[in-house]
Design a protein that fits this description.
By secondary structure, this protein is an all-alpha fold. The protein has four helices and no strands.
Length: 107
Protein backbone atom coordinates (compact mmCIF):
# COMPACT_ATOMS: atom_id res chain seq x y z
CA UNK A 1 0.00 0.00 0.00
CA UNK A 2 2.86 2.39 0.80
CA UNK A 3 4.32 1.87 -2.68
CA UNK A 4 0.94 2.69 -4.22
CA UNK A 5 0.90 6.06 -2.42
CA UNK A 6 4.47 6.77 -3.53
CA UNK A 7 3.53 5.97 -7.13
CA UNK A 8 0.49 8.20 -6.83
CA UNK A 9 2.65 11.13 -5.69
CA UNK A 10 5.09 10.45 -8.56
CA UNK A 11 2.18 10.47 -11.02
CA UNK A 12 1.02 13.80 -9.58
CA UNK A 13 4.53 15.27 -9.82
CA UNK A 14 4.64 14.24 -13.47
CA UNK A 15 1.63 16.50 -13.97
CA UNK A 16 3.88 19.46 -13.18
CA UNK A 17 6.12 18.48 -16.07
CA UNK A 18 3.45 17.86 -18.67
CA UNK A 19 1.32 20.87 -17.81
CA UNK A 20 4.34 23.17 -17.85
CA UNK A 21 5.56 21.65 -21.12
CA UNK A 22 2.15 22.16 -22.73
CA UNK A 23 2.17 25.78 -21.55
CA UNK A 24 5.58 26.18 -23.20
CA UNK A 25 4.30 24.53 -26.40
CA UNK A 26 2.24 27.66 -27.15
CA UNK A 27 -0.95 25.79 -27.98
CA UNK A 28 0.96 22.84 -29.50
CA UNK A 29 2.68 25.21 -31.94
CA UNK A 30 6.16 24.34 -30.63
CA UNK A 31 6.96 20.69 -31.38
CA UNK A 32 9.29 19.54 -28.61
CA UNK A 33 7.47 21.01 -25.64
CA UNK A 34 4.27 19.51 -27.08
CA UNK A 35 5.86 16.09 -27.54
CA UNK A 36 7.35 16.17 -24.04
CA UNK A 37 4.04 17.30 -22.57
CA UNK A 38 2.04 14.53 -24.22
CA UNK A 39 4.62 11.82 -23.47
CA UNK A 40 4.86 12.77 -19.80
CA UNK A 41 1.06 13.00 -19.55
CA UNK A 42 0.84 9.42 -20.79
CA UNK A 43 3.52 8.35 -18.31
CA UNK A 44 1.60 10.06 -15.51
CA UNK A 45 -1.55 8.13 -16.39
CA UNK A 46 0.41 4.86 -16.57
CA UNK A 47 1.90 5.43 -13.12
CA UNK A 48 -1.54 6.38 -11.79
CA UNK A 49 -2.99 3.16 -13.20
CA UNK A 50 -0.34 1.08 -11.41
CA UNK A 51 -1.20 2.80 -8.11
CA UNK A 52 -4.85 1.89 -8.70
CA UNK A 53 -4.01 -1.77 -8.13
CA UNK A 54 -3.97 -1.03 -4.40
CA UNK A 55 -5.87 2.24 -3.92
CA UNK A 56 -9.56 3.09 -4.25
CA UNK A 57 -10.15 4.80 -7.59
CA UNK A 58 -12.05 7.75 -6.12
CA UNK A 59 -9.35 8.52 -3.59
CA UNK A 60 -6.45 7.99 -5.99
CA UNK A 61 -7.97 10.12 -8.73
CA UNK A 62 -8.86 12.94 -6.33
CA UNK A 63 -5.37 12.94 -4.84
CA UNK A 64 -3.73 12.75 -8.29
CA UNK A 65 -5.74 15.69 -9.61
CA UNK A 66 -5.46 17.63 -6.34
CA UNK A 67 -1.69 17.32 -5.97
CA UNK A 68 -1.19 17.90 -9.68
CA UNK A 69 -3.36 21.01 -9.64
CA UNK A 70 -1.68 22.31 -6.52
CA UNK A 71 1.78 21.71 -7.96
CA UNK A 72 0.98 23.28 -11.31
CA UNK A 73 -0.57 26.33 -9.61
CA UNK A 74 2.50 26.76 -7.40
CA UNK A 75 4.76 26.36 -10.44
CA UNK A 76 2.71 29.02 -12.22
CA UNK A 77 3.10 31.39 -9.29
CA UNK A 78 6.81 30.79 -8.66
CA UNK A 79 8.13 30.20 -12.19
CA UNK A 80 5.66 31.94 -14.50
CA UNK A 81 4.76 34.94 -12.34
CA UNK A 82 1.06 34.12 -12.08
CA UNK A 83 -1.12 35.73 -9.42
CA UNK A 84 -0.60 34.77 -5.78
CA UNK A 85 -3.60 36.64 -4.42
CA UNK A 86 -4.71 35.76 -0.89
CA UNK A 87 -7.94 34.24 -2.22
CA UNK A 88 -6.05 32.04 -4.69
CA UNK A 89 -3.59 30.88 -2.04
CA UNK A 90 -6.48 30.14 0.34
CA UNK A 91 -8.18 27.99 -2.29
CA UNK A 92 -4.95 26.12 -2.96
CA UNK A 93 -4.62 25.45 0.77
CA UNK A 94 -8.14 24.00 0.75
CA UNK A 95 -7.06 21.58 -1.98
CA UNK A 96 -4.09 20.56 0.17
CA UNK A 97 -6.34 20.02 3.18
CA UNK A 98 -8.62 17.83 1.06
CA UNK A 99 -5.73 15.71 -0.20
CA UNK A 100 -4.37 15.25 3.33
CA UNK A 101 -7.86 14.37 4.52
CA UNK A 102 -8.19 11.68 1.86
CA UNK A 103 -4.84 10.19 2.84
CA UNK A 104 -5.85 10.12 6.51
CA UNK A 105 -9.26 8.61 5.81
CA UNK A 106 -8.13 5.99 3.27
CA UNK A 107 -4.64 5.48 4.73
Amino acid sequence: MKLAWILLVVAALLELVWATALKQSNGLARLWPAVIGMAVALLSVVVLSVSLRDLPVGTAYAVWVGLGSLGVAITGIVVLGESASPARVACLLLILVGVIGLKVVDG
